[in-house]
């Protein structure tokens, strides 16, 4: 049972409730492009997980089978202990994810949004499977069964959803023990006073114990985002940006030792010769401006509608993924990734965005034929009728006369 998939309708209901709270309070914590980019990163992460989660789950199961030191009973106290144990491991995974270059390259995706709302919670990495699983091996050695591990991992992630909001103030005594919206806002800040603090997933006690806790301060309003801004609505680039920076720095470094160690050095470390020749500019927070690309209401609505179709398609894919082979899942991932890339180009108002949209719509035809042949979509005329109607609607929108919009260079 996929708890995350079951929770998707509730995620969107709560996002709608937060938007209503915005309206009632006369504030604006959402921007459409930023929110769609966060949600796109989440959809891409779920699609990528179909290919990568086997590595983590099978790796954990293998470690449990061959290394566990105890046989734990199927009792309530085991589940409670595993839930706490998982959050302890998560703390160290999360902390080192901020403190080491190669781990930050994976985790940075979650922090790139310059807004802070419930869509930010769904902004997840697609590359966490590479090294993240290592931090949970102590649970396997301790004898936590794989089913318990997978379940408490999902519950931990579900808990973290609600803390990504600006509408909930400090919660008194609750702040001492649990991760809350207030102390997690600190975690998403790029203010120097808040940087690299509050790593817990459920329990903030780990931060208090290990010296990484920071309270939200009225005199320091939070500025959300990262010190090297993404400045893109492309979810693929969001996942690759910092890896690309590390690779460029490694190639440019004059020392082989620097080329190797840059990946494992503290986050932000760069070889001295590279930093001198190619400095990285960081924005002045006193004059900080969020990344924005001018778009008409029609362009925004079109992007939202197209994205909704990928949410529906990916949700359907997740529901049947367990019955599919790796090759089929890889093909489905390409469909999702290309579609989200096209939506990102549209949101950036790229000169080639409309031509790319026409190509995407055309490629949906062979994609549906392939999906029916491999059993992802039921055979028959109904899927073709729905695709034809959607394609005609989308093409009509593309060719409808429009006023010129400023384009991104």
Give the helices and strands, then pairings.
Elements: H1 3-25, H2 32-67, H3 76-99, H4 101-107, H5 118-121, H6 137-142, H7 146-161, H8 174-177, H9 181-187, H10 205-210, H11 235-252, H12 256-261, H13 272-277, H14 297-320, H15 326-347, H16 353-374, H17 382-399
Helix pairs in contact: 1-7, 2-11, 2-14, 2-15, 3-4, 3-7, 4-11, 14-15, 15-16, 16-17
Walk me through what this model shows:
The chain is mainly α. It folds into two domains: 3-210, no CATH class; 299-399, no CATH class. The chain is 61% helix and 0% strand. It is built from 17 helices and no strands. It has helices spanning 3-25, 32-67, 76-99, 101-107, 118-121, 137-142, 146-161, 174-177, 181-187, 205-210, 235-252, 256-261, 272-277, 297-320, 326-347, 353-374, 382-399. Helix 2 runs parallel beside helix 14 (297-320). The longest helix has 36 residues, at 32-67.
The structure class reads mainly alpha
Unreliable stretches (pLDDT < 50, length at least 5) are none
Largest sheet properties: none
SSE arrangement, N to C: HHHHHHHHHHHHHHHHH
Helical percentage: 55-70%
Count of helical segments? Answer: 17
- Give the number of domains: 2
What is the overall silhouette? Answer: globular
């Amino acid at each position: 049972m996929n708890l995350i998939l079951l929770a998707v309708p509730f995620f969107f209901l709560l996002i709608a409730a937060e938007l209503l709270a915005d309206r009632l309070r006369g504030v604006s914590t959402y921007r459409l492009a930023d929110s769609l980019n966060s949600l796109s990163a989440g959809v891409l992460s779920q699609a990528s997980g179909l290919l990568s989660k086997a590595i983590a789950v099978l790796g954990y199961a293998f470690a449990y089978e061959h290394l566990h030191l105890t046989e734990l009973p199927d009792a309530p106290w085991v589940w409670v202990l595993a839930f706490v144990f998982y959050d302890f491991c998560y703390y160290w995974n999360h902390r080192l994810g901020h403190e080491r270059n190669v781990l930050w390259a994976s985790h940075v995706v979650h922090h790139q949004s310059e807004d802070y709302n419930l869509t930010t919670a769904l902004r997840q990495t697609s590359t966490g499977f590479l090294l993240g699983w290592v931090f949970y091996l102590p649970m396997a050695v301790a004898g936590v069964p794989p089913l318990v591990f997978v379940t408490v991992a999902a519950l931990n992630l579900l808990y973290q959803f609600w803390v990504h909001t600006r509408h909930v103030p400090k919660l008194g005594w609750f702040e001492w023990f649990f991760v809350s919206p207030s102390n997690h806002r600190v975690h998403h800040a790029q203010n120097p006073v808040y940087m690299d603090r509050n790593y817990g997933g459920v329990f903030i006690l780990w931060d208090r114990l290990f010296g990484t806790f920071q309270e939200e301060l009225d005199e320091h309003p939070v500025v959300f985002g990262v010190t090297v801004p993404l400045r893109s609505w492309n979810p693929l680039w969001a996942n690759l940006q910092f890896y690309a920076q590390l690779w460029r720095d490694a190639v440019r470094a004059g020392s082989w030792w620097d080329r190797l160690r840059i990946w494992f050095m503290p986050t932000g470390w760069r070889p001295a010769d590279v930093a001198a020749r190619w400095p990285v500019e960081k924005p002045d927070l006193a004059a900080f401006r969020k990344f924005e690309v001018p778009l008409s209401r029609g362009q925004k609505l079109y992007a939202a509608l197209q994205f909704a179709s990928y949410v529906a398609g990916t949700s359907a894919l997740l529901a049947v993924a367990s019955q599919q082979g790796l090759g089929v899942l890889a093909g489905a991932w390409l469909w999702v990734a290309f579609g989200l890339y096209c939506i990102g180009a549209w949101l950036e108002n790229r000169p080639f965005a409309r031509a790319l949209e026409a190509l995407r719509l055309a490629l949906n035809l062979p994609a549906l034929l392939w999906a029916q042949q491999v059993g992802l979509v039921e055979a028959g005329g109904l899927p073709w009728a729905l695709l034809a109607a959607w394609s005609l609607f989308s093409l009509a929108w593309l060719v409808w006369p429009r006023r010129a919009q400023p384009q991104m260079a």
